[in-house]
Task: inverse folding
């Protein structure tokens, strides 16, 4: 099993909603703004308004991600992206992240394992491929890079 | 726009080996939303690596054999470790056949009591692979 770079995605984040569910656990809703992605044989944009990330965040700020939204390739193919992930970091790092400060992305663990649904055609390899993603939160948005498992 | 690309490059580090014993499949059949649905219960097995040793004390694999030849798999495995700690391992993945990869790959996460001996399992994501014909599932930590 090896990881081969597949695509990079840069997104801006839209409105955020926090739902305090219980005991300090919060369901966040970070709606996706705009974004682009590119990689070998693959480029396009994120469909605005098509979804977002809905993390379950613990009182100490660690959490699990659940995201879903649509991509559209430059040749007009819609692709559904759904992902789960883990964030784990020392408490002071999490506080800085939540405050929207610039944080060294090496100081926390943020990994995603997205799945894609694409129509038959040039991108249908994504329907049978697992991916590993690394996230980097910047004040203005997020950068995700994804590697395919081969 | 490249100076902000300072995030780590991920890797896969071998962590655990899992052997799964399964019951007879329960077959739902061809379903209206496409593919053939089935289910198997986990009846036993073992989980070892990184100084941990456990047995599989429950779980299931829910399968959807899609019409494109790919089987989508949703798994849950309960692992009881030698000190009595329990973890729930869960995830999704694909089983594919040649000319594509011949075997099963799964992305996995764990849940465990956060004050327990295996709490660290829940702080990382994992990627597993079982090549067709191999007896063991190889579980790699995503680093």
Result:
């Amino acid at each position: 099993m090896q990881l081969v770079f597949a695509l990079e995605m840069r997104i801006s984040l839209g409105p955020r909603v926090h739902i305090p569910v219980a005991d300090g656990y919060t369901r966040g809703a970070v709606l996706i703004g705009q974004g682009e992605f590119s990689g070998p044989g693959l480029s396009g944009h994120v469909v605005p308004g098509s979804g977002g990330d809905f993390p379950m965040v613990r009182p100490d700020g660690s959490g699990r991600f659940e995201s879903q939204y649509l991509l559209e390739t430059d040749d007009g193919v819609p692709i559904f992206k759904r992902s789960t992930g883990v964030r784990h970091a020392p408490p002071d790092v999490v506080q800085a992240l939540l405050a929207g400060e610039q944080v060294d992305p090496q100081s926390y663990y943020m990994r995603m394992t997205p799945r894609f649904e694409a129509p038959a055609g040039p991108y249908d390899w994504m329907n049978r491929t697992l991916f590993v993603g690394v996230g980097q939160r910047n004040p203005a948005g997020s950068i995700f890079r994804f590697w395919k498992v081969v | 726009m490249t100076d902000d690309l300072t995030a780590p490059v991920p890797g896969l580090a071998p962590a655990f080996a899992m052997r799964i014993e399964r019951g007879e499949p329960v077959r739902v059949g061809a379903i209206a939303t496409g593919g053939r649905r089935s289910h198997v219960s986990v009846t036993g097995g073992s989980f070892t690596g990184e100084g941990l040793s456990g047995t599989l004390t429950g779980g299931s694999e829910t399968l959807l054999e899609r019409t494109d030849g790919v089987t989508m798999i949703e798994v849950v495995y309960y692992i009881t470790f030698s000190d009595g700690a329990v973890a729930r391992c869960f995830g999704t993945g694909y089983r594919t056949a040649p000319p594509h990869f011949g075997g099963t790959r799964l992305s996995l996460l764990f849940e465990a009591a956060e004050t327990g001996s295996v709490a660290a399992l829940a702080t990382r994501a994992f990627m597993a692979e079982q090549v067709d014909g191999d007896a063991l599932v190889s579980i790699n930590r995503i680093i």
Observations:
- The first strand of chain B starts at residue 12 and ends at 22.
- The beta strands of chain B are 12-22, 26-30, 36-49, 52-65, 71-81, 86-96, 103-112, 126-131, 137-142.
- Chain B touches chain A at residues 4-12, 68, 70, 91-94, 96, 100-101, 105-107, 109, 123-125, 127, 129, 138, 140, 142 (CB under 8 Å).
- Chain B has one domain: 12-142.
